[in-house]
Fold:
Amino acid sequence: MRILGVDPGLLNLGCVLIEVSGGNFQILESMTLKTRPEDSSAKRLYYLYSHFKKFLEISAPEVLAIEEPLAKANPYTTAKVFQAQGIVLLLAEERQIPLKIYHPSYWKSFLCKNGKASKLEVYNFLKTLMGEQNFENILKDNHMVDALALALVCALELKVF
Structure:
């Protein structure tokens, strides 16, 4: 089964596509779509829309796991994350890809047994799981790390391991 994990954000949208088969998983693709902060919100959203749409067409995931944005102290920043999530949800619906939406505390608790696990704890958990070989070459930033975590939680929930 091909599962796409997505960590939404208007500046950085992390994506990791895994394939689960025979009790193992393989990372097929990992990337972070990066927009330019100096561009207008409309231009950044269009960039995410067009590039994520192409990625979905090429990668053909069977299910998509995405993080539910948290309302933060800065409503302006929160709104931008929700906008990016909206692009992903729209494109998933357009392609009829089933969705799993995870609250950060849920998926962190699922993997790390701590709903408030830090980025470093998630990183270390996944590095241990995957082995240190090529970890940094495959997952180049925290957005990809979170996207992989979301894909794995989805795979475990769906019992495809």
